[in-house]
Amino acid sequence: MFELDDIQEDTVNELEEVVMGLIINAGQARSLAYTALKKAKQGDFDNAKILMEQSHSALNEAHKVQTQLIESDMGEGRIKVSLVLVHAQDHLMNAMLARELITELIELHEKLER
């Protein structure tokens, strides 16, 4: 990863790579959560739990990048806001929301199974 504290014009491509990593990790977190929900619907709660843990790890990686971007910007507009960055933020927030809701749905499925 590159130093986010000193973003210059020539590092825009590197920033885009970081942002793409955020999109990939957030997308992976969301995908794993939905796969976990599918497993829970089938009554496979052990694998659902494993998938949700993997989803959590992917989301943590995405969140670390987001935190670094926010900290390096320091509210001063140092990081150029692009459509890709906005898209990455959307992916991250959707993944976070999906995980929260899917966690609740898995718990409901587990209670109904008993």
UniProtKB/TrEMBL annotation:
Keywords: Cytoplasm, Magnesium, Metal-binding, Phosphotransferase system, Sugar transport, Transferase, Transport. It comes from the Bacteria. PROSITE patterns: PTS_EIIA_TYPE_3. It holds the Pfam family PTS_IIA. Binds 1 Mg(2+) ion per trimer. GO terms for biological process: phosphoenolpyruvate-dependent sugar phosphotransferase system. Mg(2+) binds at residue 90. SUPFAM superfamilies: Enzyme IIa from lactose specific PTS, IIa-lac (SSF46973). The active site is at residue 87. This is PTS system N,N'-diacetylchitobiose-specific EIIA component. It comes from Providencia heimbachae ATCC 35613.
